[in-house]
Task: inverse folding
């Protein structure tokens, strides 16, 4: 399915497949458009199945001109059947898409892989980004693997594990005194005067965004070429959320799977919930907010794809909800205790939202639900600090027995 142009999402003006992200006519966002695949869906399916166990098995649906490969293989993460969690929530068939299994432990490896591959095709020599944490981590790692210098700009108050894990790769880390929206504004300015820098989520944004479709492609394939009924996933800028739905639609259009795009349920933290708020109030306009939440990965107060996320949730019969920081902490613990998967605060947002939907009776007993767990708990380790006790004892069997009395058999 060859990419043939960049198209404005608002006025449909077409542009060549260059490093552009905004429409010159109406300032709308640009996205990659494709011509429908020709030929036999069965042949396309065989080609996918014969591909590598990475996102590149879906090269037919990604915007690269040459053969796709990367030095740091990404994707094909487990889809885990979560029976114990389903039982706790009173749900039927529930799966966790476990994105902690990516090379830098978040879904950002997908979007960076695609942006980097396209940046190399376009001749860029430096990789950069504005990040809420995971993106910096992924940009630094993929640039290191490809042998490119990297500049990552982050809000100064990011969680320390994310900064340390990024510095390890040798990237230039720039901590900006401001929030993500300030960082993003600064990066847009820097990008204007550094023509050889590929900012993965600014001038490369249309290509970057395509990487999220692979979450949908993998989900379909891992369900045995079937569609789920409902997706629950996080919203920061809204890019991932909207592109997951696009991925399902493209597989349907290509004849690889039949049915409808799943109901799309978005999840935000109450401390940064401009999209959930607009959805609840029935607006199309998303009013920017100043973020204040432990879910820093999702702390984008002025989300670029917010209006499209709202339209998608409405159109599919899903919704967008917000959860409190305490609910997020409980969500992290609930997932860990029932599945063995330890997620960062963003995953807590998703699981807490899933729990809320279940409690409200929004999810039918026969539904097949997939929850997107997008990042690793080790990056936001403070979320679980103080939520359990450690028993300290002297090195003696009596001391052990006095705390944990042997159970008579
Ligand atoms: C970036 C990120 C998201 C989603 O971001 P969007 O801007 O909405 O695409 C979700 N979860 C985690 C952990 C992230 O780092
Ligand atoms: Zn336009």
Result:
């Amino acid at each position: 399915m060859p990419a043939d142009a960049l198209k404005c999402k608002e006025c449909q003006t077409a542009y060549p497949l260059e490093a552009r992200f905004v429409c010159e006519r109406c300032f709308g966002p640009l996205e990659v458009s494709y011509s429908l695949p020709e030929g036999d869906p069965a042949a396309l399916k065989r080609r996918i199945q014969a591909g590598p166990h990475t996102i590149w098995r879906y090269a037919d649906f990604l915007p690269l001109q040459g053969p796709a490969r990367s030095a740091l293989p990404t994707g094909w993460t487990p889809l885990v059947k979560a029976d114990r969690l389903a039982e706790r929530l009173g749900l039927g068939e529930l799966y966790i898409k476990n994105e902690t299994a990516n090379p830098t432990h978040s879904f950002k490896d997908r979007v960076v892989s695609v942006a980097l591959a396209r940046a190399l095709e376009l001749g860029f020599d430096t990789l950069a980004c504005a990040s809420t944490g995971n993106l910096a981590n992924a940009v630094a790692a993929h640039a290191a693997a490809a042998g490119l210098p990297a500049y990552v700009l982050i809000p100064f108050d990011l969680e320390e594990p994310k900064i340390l894990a990024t510095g390890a790769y040798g990237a230039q880390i720039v901590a900006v005194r401001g929030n993500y929206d300030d960082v993003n504004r600064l990066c847009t300015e820097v990008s204007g005067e550094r023509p050889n820098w590929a900012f993965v989520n600014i001038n490369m944004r249309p290509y970057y965004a395509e990487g999220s479709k692979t979450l949908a492609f993998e989900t379909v394939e891992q369900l045995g070429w079937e569609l789920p009924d409902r997706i629950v996933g996080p919203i920061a800028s809204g890019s991932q959320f909207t592109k997951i739905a696009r991925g399902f639609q493209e597989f349907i259009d290509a004849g690889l799977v039949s049915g409808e795009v799943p109901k799309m349920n978005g999840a935000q933290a109450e401390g940064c919930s401009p999209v959930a708020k607009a959805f609840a109030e029935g607006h199309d306009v998303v009013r920017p907010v100043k973020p204040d939440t432990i879910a820093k990965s999702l702390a984008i107060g002025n989300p670029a794809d917010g209006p499209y996320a709202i339209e998608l949730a409405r159109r599919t019969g899903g919704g967008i909800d917000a959860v409190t920081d305490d609910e997020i902490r409980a969500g992290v613990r609930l997932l860990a205790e029932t599945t063995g998967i330890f997620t960062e605060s963003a995953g807590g947002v998703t699981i807490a939202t899933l729990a809320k939907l279940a409690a409200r009776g929004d999810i039918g007993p026969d539904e097949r639900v997939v929850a997107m767990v997008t990042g690793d708990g080790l990056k936001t380790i403070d979320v679980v600090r103080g939520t359990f006790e450690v028993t300290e004892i002297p090195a003696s069997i009596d001391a052990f027995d006095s705390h944990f009395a042997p159970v008579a058999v």
